[in-house]
Design goal:
Length: 253
């Protein structure tokens, strides 16, 4: 990593001065500009410890500045949240500290550098199981939309299903990623086999009919369900199994 460009750092520090005036206790630069691999369209991502708007976007010269405020308690809690830890931890690891008079950001960065998936392993498994149950409902909705010839709705739900499965499987495979842009390929690599091809079709990356793309999303659900079925409770398993049957790809023991 080479770190931010001189211009990006100057703008980040300018924004930081304004954030401090608004009550920021600490400010860090994260993302591609912090790592030094930004392109001309990359956001300038600032995370703030303090009370303020959860997300705020503005233009500053050539940069789109994205500012996210969280309390110190919420920043700490994110390390224990399976839905957030996979991206939060790498972001803190590569962060550039811009303002930190009380060493709050330094302590969080050190925590990220020492963090392990094992510290929240059981919570991860419970979260993955619950996500599979919630995604089973997406399968019901997609099938209903297809049967009623509501193709636009089916296309939207298909994409939601494919994206939701990637999130669930990233936690299941304990994948940490600094950019969501890398998530899809990381999950495909971890799953191996035909998962990558099915994911491409489910997200309509290549020219394909809607019904074939929906079929790929249904197969993705079945593959993910087979991979994660040992995490399901006695109550959860019938929900997921029925969705697999509805999709046309029964759950494989």
């Amino acid at each position: 990593m080479t770190g931010p460009s001189e211009r990006a750092l100057a703008v980040a520090l300018e924004e930081t001065r304004g954030l401090v005036a608004e009550g920021a206790r600490a400010v860090i630069l994260t993302g591609s500009h912090a790592r030094g691999d930004a392109n001309e369209h990359s956001d300038l991502d600032l995370r703030v410890i303090g009370d303020g708007p959860k997300k705020h976007l503005k233009r500053n010269d050539e940069f789109l500045v994205s500012t996210s405020w969280m309390s110190l308690e919420d920043h700490n809690a994110a390390f224990g949240d399976p839905s957030e830890a996979g991206s939060i931890v790498p972001g803190w690891t590569s962060a550039v500290i811009l303002h930190d008079p009380d060493d709050l950001a330094r302590e969080l960065k050190e925590r990220a550098e020492n963090w392990k998936w094992e510290s929240i392993g059981e919570a991860c498994d419970r979260w993955v199981a619950q996500q599979m149950v919630e995604l089973a409902e997406e399968v019901h909705t997609i099938v209903g939309n297809i049967e009623q010839d509501k193709l636009t709705a089916a296309a939207a739900e298909r994409s939601q299903l494919a994206m939701g499965l990637a999130q669930a499987l990233s936690v299941h495979n304990r994948i940490a990623y600094e950019s969501e842009n890398d998530l899809w390929q990381l999950v495909a690599d971890a799953m191996g086999g035909r998962y990558g091809g099915l994911q491409r079709n489910a997200l309509a990356e290549d020219p394909i009919t809607l019904r074939d793309s929906v079929g790929a999303a249904m197969q993705l659900f079945s593959v993910a369900a087979t991979e994660t079925q040992h995490l399901l409770s006695e109550e959860q398993r019938p929900v997921v199994a029925h969705a697999c049957n509805l999709a046309g790809y029964p759950l494989v023991d």
